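Q: I have two molecules that I believe assemble together. Could you output structure tokens for the complex as a whole instead of separate predictions?
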Amino acid sequence: MMLANKHDTARGHIQAILGSLVNIEFEGPARQNEICFIQHEGKSLMAEVIRITGNIAQAQVFDSTRGLRTKTPVVFSGQLLEVTLGPGLLSRKYDGLQNDLEKLPGLFLERGSYAPPLDEDCQYSFIPLSHKDALVCAGDWLGEVQEGWIQHKIMVPFSLQGQYRVAFLAPEGKLRLKDTVAILQDETGREHTATMVQRWPVKKPLLGYRQKIRPDTILTTGVRAIDTLNPLPEGGTGFIPGPFGCGKTVLQQAISKNAKVDLVVLVACGERANEVVEIFKTFPELPDPHTGRKLIERTTIICNTSNMPVAARDASVYMGMAIAEYYRAMGLKVLLLADSTSRWAQALREISNRLEELPGPDAFPVDLTAVISAFYARAGKVILRNGQTGSVTFLGTVSPAGGNFKEPVTEGTRKAARCFYALSQRRSDSKRYPAIEPLESYSKYLEYPEFRQNLEGIMGEGWLDLVEAAKDLLRQSGEAREQIAILGDDSVPLEYHEIFWKGELIDFAILQQDAFDRIDANTPLARQAYMLRLVMGICRRRFYFPHFEDTAAFFKKLIHLFKQMNYAEFGSANFHDYENQIHAFVAEKSS
Amino acid sequence: MRKVYTRLSKITKATVSLFAQDVSYEELASVDGRLAQVIRIAGDEVTLQVFAGTEGIAANARVLFLGHPPRLKISDELVGRYFNAYGDPIDGKPPVAGEYVELGGPTINPVHRSQPSEWIATGIAGIDLNNTLVTGQKIPFFADPGEPYNQVMAMVAMKAQSDKIVLGGIGLSHDDYLYYKTVFENAGAEHRTVVFLNTTEDPPVERLLIPDLCLSVAEYFALQKNEKVLVLLTDMALYAEALAIVASKMEQIPAKDSMPGSLYSDLARIYERAVQLPSGGSITIIAVTTIHDGDITHAIPDNTGYITEGQLFLRRDTSVGKVIVDPFRSLSRLKQIVIGKKTREDHPQLMNALVRFYADAADAKTKLENGFELTHYDRRALDFAREYSRELLAIDVDLDMQKILTIGWQLVAKYFEKEETGIRQDILDKYWPEK
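A: Yes, here they are, computed for all two components at once.
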């Protein structure tokens, strides 16, 4: 860890310890949110100042506090919690403080051990994209290097404010991370050296773009219940709340594998280590369905599992966001996934509790909603200063206590995120996966004319009306089911059974999807459009059944055929064979 | 010579405070001979959590700081032995020699874990078929206090393939303790068991020590000896209650259901010690969390469910008069890793079809209770459900996987048509039994 000039930083010693919170009596200019290091038995334990009262700084320690004593010396760094940005972030596995997990020594995560996030000795072939005397601002592209398959842009440091003249730009050639890429002169003539690597305080949004625009293009997730019914656009925000066991993680992992984006940043925030291990083991093997490259080549993982220090959980989501924003500034489409933001909120609660702040609902800090909103607001689609676009799409899971959506984290997130994918216990109990409740969920982006236009262009004319019709049918089907349950099978008009079963057909053929089947797990948009048209074509027909039991028998057979079709490769002989069987079977029964 | 303090500044039900110098956080102390641990340092004032409770402690009690955090002497000699929450023998035999190991130490770097991949057969069809277990998994039984969860857990422990079994009794009744003891003895398993015990008559705060003891021992055998270790923790709800007692004495603001706000992290710290190591060693945790009237929204089962890799739900099925592993509310998250791969290919699809029919039967049952007429399909589903419950879900069913799948197919074919199953055609073609 880099320490700033020793003269202008504070020093102190521990005065009190409670869980992960320590009070430090200090001298000098300690800053709010400054990083300090506790000097314990030859190790440096990292901590962040979260409150200053008089000459006492309270800091949350990103490590176990076992064995600490009063009078233990503390050194302040003069810096806030920062992320290191530069070529080599891709495919890495970091902890919440951006230590490279692969490089940490030993089987156990020993406290006080740190591993640099980037490989400083690695050489990259630099190609200049700017020129001497060019006038540049923070985020402008000075040059690029090849990082895996990406042309990683070397940008004017984001910390520089105002306009600069390029006084020197390195020519094409091999450079190391810390070599000088450019010398930038500000208006007063002062020179700033830019290298390939820069640092940024994670809790501040990384700007450097011309403007943020409304999301207008669909992001394909391959999940029908999302793309078809409530689509998420590039640069959009969404959240997935659900009781445990409803398939949040399976759904998010499916999206991380199949989403059509350039990069995925996965933040495993206070969740199970075995789930992270699954990603570690499978992503280097599995192909990206859109490019054929391995999934790990487009993925960066930030991992703070539930048994890692709580304070670092808060840091982990911001690390993920800052890395996503950094790649967005290169004109890339980035998907940021966080599982689960509730664990982050709980970390905030634990700290707030230890600080003895007055609690809000369920003992969460009162500013919880504001913190969540500010975080979600960092996502978005932007136009860069060179006219190119980039996006950060953010999808977070929420683990509501007791499965009750009226708890502070779910409610706070609902105000911040514009797509809502409610996972329901009822659907999960009947093994209807993904358990996304189609009618309770929504995508507010469907109100944007530019997004609607984009959808109609991709999915075909009349698409949105068709989707609306499908939702109506699902609604009617639910009502019919209730009527049947109240009045009994033979006390309702036969038509009710038909409506009920049409809804079931949409449910089984479109909404339900087998995340563990090679083909069904990922449905391209063209196939989604095709399948909804096929299903709705059938739903718009009137059938005549002599008895309600015939209705059930007919639709069950039909559902069976549709399921087989979903398991078949799109457009294959097998696929069309089932389709023909469906047409023949329907023709036989309809008037 | 260590300094002895004789002046307490504060005494609560579970904690004492005093002024002392050079004390390290989480170090142990002795308060009039009772074991205590430092849980807060504020300047010179130190707060200690007294595990056995503070009843009868005098304001001038002798306090001696021990200079180390909780630790245990660990070696192969632990096997076959019974200990209390402090790691002292309770079986009348001499103390164990071995290396001191600090309890609750650092966690394993996730990049050095392996993906759990070894199937644990238990013979209990309701588990092996619908909720297949895997080494390195952590999974609790959610059960009402009246369910025979200790019996089922003991059964699983005896049948599952493991090198060592570590039992942590957390507020275990004395009768249940004797039951486990008898089961271990009768099965001749004492050469591979280690037991740490806090019974209902022991002080509740002592319970906080049990999981760490068990898991440190488990880590020794899994890491040093590359063994497959099964850890049984019963009952984790009582552990959580002990956490709540201490939190409230510390005047922490409680979150939901009077539980401390850190409950999730506290429980995760324990359960996340379950691990599959590349060397072949593993720690599998099977726990019991008692719940009330099936309420899984209470903070204890709720937080547990978010941490563990599924849960096993026991319920009495009155239509067959047996305790079953509830197929709706039970779940093994790791089963996807082994079913259809380590087990036969038709396992996942058959399993899902059976559960769906069982759900249809539940709907039919509601109809019946509401006085509606049943359809032919409803009646078939109900008949199926009874047989499925009796033949496969009941906890007394002891079958190997081959037999379980055979029975499953026979049941499906007996009551339903191929088109009603939703099973993939190639699987149907291959496994559908001819009547």
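A: One point stands out. Chain B touches chain A through 82 residues (CB under 8 Å).
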